[in-house]
Design brief:
Largest interface: A-B, 28 and 30 residues
Radius of gyration of chain B: 14 Å
Order of helices and strands of chain B: EEEEEEEEEE
Structural class of chain A: mainly beta
Number of helices of chain A: 0
Strand content of chain B: over 45%
Number of helices of chain B: 0
Order of helices and strands of chain A: EEEEEEEEEEE
Number of strands of chain A: 11
Oligomer: heterodimer
Helix content of chain A: under 10%
Shape of chain B: globular
Structural class of chain B: mainly beta
Strand content of chain A: over 45%
Largest sheet of chain A: 7 strands, mixed
């Protein structure tokens, strides 16, 4: 079974530029998550989708971050404009359903963003 | 790739010894807990979970202990192997749904 795919793997931009990350979840997984992992910390949930609807975006900085999952499969996360503190690894994860105690989350390899 | 383990607490263990990684969780309402393993350049990987109605759960070479009184979790790895070297995170959740909150990780270094 193919895992969660993310691209690009690495991205370097200057502050105030825009950047987008792409995620392709495991086939058949209805729930998709985007996490931000700052170096030395645990991942922090940014947004959770159930199919193409948003379940939780309470920790997404909506003034600069946006995410979409238009057809309920692939998802993109965008940052515009980027700040130095956005330097982190952006992880995508997916699961068959929302209830974590019955549905394991599978993580992609992440996109490492460096903002200069 | 750059390690996620910079500035994290580090546990160094001799190969073949048992490892114990500890975690204090924050929310007394949390009732579902997960341990993840994260190798350098990869996303976290599920190891084992436990619900709050249990105080111990065993997997293959791993055991998780839960002490709700002091809000403490531990992960025990038997006969630690070089492939166990990674950063380990505990995560807490309420009701098995909604968001998972990750704790501060611990870097496990296995000395051959």
């Amino acid at each position: 079974e193919a895992g969660v795919a993310q691209s690009p793997r690495y991205k370097i931009i200057e502050k105030r530029q825009s950047v987008a990350f792409w995620c392709n979840p495991i086939s058949g997984h209805a729930t998709l998550y985007w996490y931000q992992q700052i170096l030395g910390q645990g991942p922090k949930l940014l947004i959770q989708f159930q199919n193409n609807g948003v379940v939780d975006d309470s920790q997404l900085p909506k003034d600069r971050f946006s995410a979409e999952r238009l057809k309920g499969v692939d998802s993109t996360l965008k940052i515009q404009p980027a700040k130095l503190e956005d330097s982190a690894v952006y992880l995508c994860a997916s699961s068959k359903g929302q209830i974590l105690s019955y549905n394991e989350q599978f993580f992609g390899p992440g996109t490492r963003l460096t903002v200069l | 790739g750059e390690s996620v383990g910079l500035h994290l607490p580090t546990l160094s263990v001799q190969e073949g010894d048992n490892s114990i990684i500890n975690c204090a969780y924050s929310n007394s309402a949390s009732d579902y807990f997960i341990w993840y393993k994260q190798e350098s350049g990869k996303g976290p990987q599920f190891i084992i979970d436990i619900r709050s109605n249990m105080d111990k759960r065993q997997g293959q070479r791993v055991t998780v202990l839960l002490n709700k009184t002091v809000k403490h979790l531990s992960l025990q790895i038997a006969a630690t192997q070089p492939g166990d070297s990674a950063v380990y995170f505990c995560a807490e959740n309420i009701g098995g749904y909604q968001k998972v909150t990750f704790g501060t990780g611990t870097k496990l270094q296995v000395i051959p």
